[in-house]
Amino acid sequence: xxxxxxxxxxxxAIALAPCLRPQTHSTEHTGPEKLCLSSIGPYILLExxxxxxxxxxxxxxxxxxxxxxxxxxxxxxxxxxPYTRLLPHDxxxxxxxxxxxxxxxxxxxxxNYGDMHSYVRTCKRLQEDEAVRLFRQMASAVMHxxxxxxxxxxxxxxxxxxxxxxxxxxxxxxxxxxxxxxGDDDSLTDKHGCPAYVGPEILNxxxxxxGKAADIWSLGVVLYTMLVGRYPFQDVEPAxxxxxxxxxxxxxxxTLSPRAKSLVCCMLRKSPVxxxxxxxxxxxxxxxxxxxxxxxxHPNSRHSTDQVVPDFEKRDEGEC
Length: 320
Known about the structure:
Residues 1-287 form the Protein kinase domain. Keywords: Protein kinase inhibitor. Residues 297-320 are annotated as: Disordered. Pfam families: Pkinase. There is one protein chain. This protein is of the alpha+beta class. The chain folds into two domains: 38-110, 2-Layer Sandwich (Phosphorylase Kinase, domain 1); 114-287, Orthogonal Bundle (Transferase(Phosphotransferase), domain 1), CATH 1.10.510. Helices cover 31% and strands 15% of the residues. The protein has nine helices and twelve strands. It has helices at 3-15, 76-85, 116-123, 128-147, 200-204, 211-228, 238-247, 258-267, 278-281; strands spanning 39-40, 43-48, 54-59, 65-72, 95-100, 104-110, 150-151, 160-162, 170-172, 179-180, 187-188, 209-210. It has a six-stranded antiparallel β-sheet with strand order 1-2-3-4-6-5. Strands 7-10 form a two-stranded antiparallel sheet. A hairpin with a 5-residue loop joins strand 2 (43-48) and strand 3. Helix 6 (211-228) packs antiparallel against helix 8. It is globular and about 55 Å long.
């Protein structure tokens, strides 16, 4: 790789938000509230999720469990904007209650039963019939956001969480990194996202790029990882990872059905203008296949030991 290419990779690595760094817009605990986090309104706040400012919370009266995010008062309106822009949707998280403190704002959401990244790591990779049911919900959430002028920017497996113990229902959470559009122009200039999911146009261009098309690329990485059990572009060195993404070349196992391969390729196209839009993804034949269409898959593919989704807690370049 040339020195220019290595320098470009370093530039992008600096511009992209590090996956494992706590979000800078999260809570800023100051004053008396810093010592009183165990209780707010009718809720008891328990431990925070590892590496986040999201707390488990229990309602004193109903005894129902919730998750609670804490925002500084000065950032509240900006961060809550994506939630208020969107109309209710079955696959997008809903705010249960907002409590204003003296310096912080406490936002309560329904509890969840784990995220998709952890689930894929546990399963190694998903059978196609299950992947269809779950990915359809993911694509529906992204379509709803795009239709209402919300570009997600930092789309990844971990942002989808289960709302039932059976792990059949998904919602998209953590919309604080989203960008609200004014009109139909979805051009963005900032380079924001998790390296494993970032599109080649963000790495290649110093100019604007289509935010919606970048979301579709990330969604393609999501689907590939669900079906294959690893990222389509993966390397321990950021410069090598970005080089692979720029080239846009990846391999798809022969165990996948032709329709699954087709959908993955329609989203992971190097040229943004050639990618499917979110609404078109929901019309793809793979999402309307019967269970019988997947019987050609290797019966033990889910447990293949050569498929690994990185442990995000140990690898800076992995999932956030």
